[in-house]
Amino acid sequence: MQVRFFVFILIGCLFSPNGVQAEKTEPNILFILTDQWRAPSLGYAGNEQVQTPHIDELARQSVNFKNAVSGCPVCCPFRASLLTGQRPLTHGVFLNDVQLPEKSVTIAEVMAGSGYATGFIGKWHLDGRGRTAFTPPERRQGFQFWRALECTHNYNKSFYYGDSPERQTWEGYDAFAQTRVARQYIRDQSKAGQPFLLVMSYGSPHNPYHTAPPEYQRLYQPEKIKLRPNVPKDQQAAAKKELAGYFAHCTALDDCVGDLMATLKEAGIDQNTIVVFTSDHGDMLRSHGQIRKQKPWDESLRVPMLFRLSGAQHGKGRTVDSPINSEDLMPTLLGLCELTIPKTVEGLDYSDYLRGGKNPSDGATVITCPSPFGEWQRSRGGKEYRGLRTARYTYVRDLNGPWLLYDNQTDPYQQNNLCNDPKSAPLQARLDAALKKKLAVQGDQFLHGSKYIDQFGYKVNPKTGTVPYTN
């Protein structure tokens, strides 16, 4: 009888929450970052043209932030905010091709300091020393495993660096080769038993649009593409051609996501791995007669944002309408891993909200263009702006005053600008006051872009506003 009692107590200690052997297992993070993938161009988002079955399945298992935005919708600012949890005018990366300061406190540094292995594969775009330059270990912001390049969109002739300055070539379409390396990293880490943070950073579906493998291009014929109603008639032919190629890249990446998900399951760690799928910004693709990013319209601003949780919340999908911004990702991921969030972080921690708790936001988030450049240079209509995106409204000011106001519920394609409409005056006043309050709290004086360029000591092309770089 005493022996049986001892065995009973021993089993209880081994398997009970308070037992000495029932230690908490730290979750892994697989962060899948794409480039220029706008929120509406996915099957789960209601797009019946693009084929994304694997991501659609991931969405069914995830918390879907349907109003997620890239607060400064262009490549480098998003990436800097992702790593630091800070806004662009704090970390200073509000233009492309500038360096994220080495003094920055990043998510990779925090997680490595907490016992995590950290890995980065693909497009980096945070070193500011030319797009083909080698990034040495001391400038990798806490990432240990490294198979990356600053920036390229030559997807079929792409190279990368490991730990030495010797260039290595991705075989074929680079996303497929990068995925193979990511899968092996997942297998190796699962065997090692060390929790990991892996950022898989793809370069597509960013233009050039017509370079996906031929079998994916054959899936989409321009003449069959249906356009959003806000594409002007004189640009519809070009839009259809571009979208056909864009969708081909999307479907190719969807297969990559499917392979990654299968590898997590094969390795036996899918239920203990947080998976995030998102993009650094969207793509106008001729909506409102515009191309690419930086703009405050939804095609540029809104990004996919899926969080598949680990543990007891694994596979429990739902859609939420709260906005979430770029600087919120780092604190949210650290919160999900129950790690301390650095005091340098400005973003909000949505981890409790993801688990069904209280929303940490007030329902509005700030969108910005501190200084227009490149494809949205001033000669092409580019200008500074500050705005708010809520679950329902988009409100934007430029330096001259109120510029845009959309009711995204009744006007989902943003074709009716209510700004300065007398009927919308109370709404505009309310949003304007909320924006000014947020900017004051953030210490954003909303100055001309040249003031920030001077403040951070950047040298830009006076015509394009672009920081010169070498390919």
From TrEMBL:
Keywords: Calcium, Hydrolase, Metal-binding, Signal. Coiled coil: none annotated. Its EC number is 3.1.6.1. It holds the Pfam family Sulfatase. Residues 27-336 form the Sulfatase N-terminal domain. Residues 1-22 form the signal peptide. PROSITE patterns: SULFATASE_2. Gene3D superfamilies: 3.30.1120.10, Alkaline Phosphatase, subunit A. GO terms for molecular function: arylsulfatase activity; metal ion binding. It comes from the Bacteria. The keyword Phosphoprotein does not apply. It is an enzyme of class 3 (hydrolase). Belongs to the sulfatase family. This is Arylsulfatase.
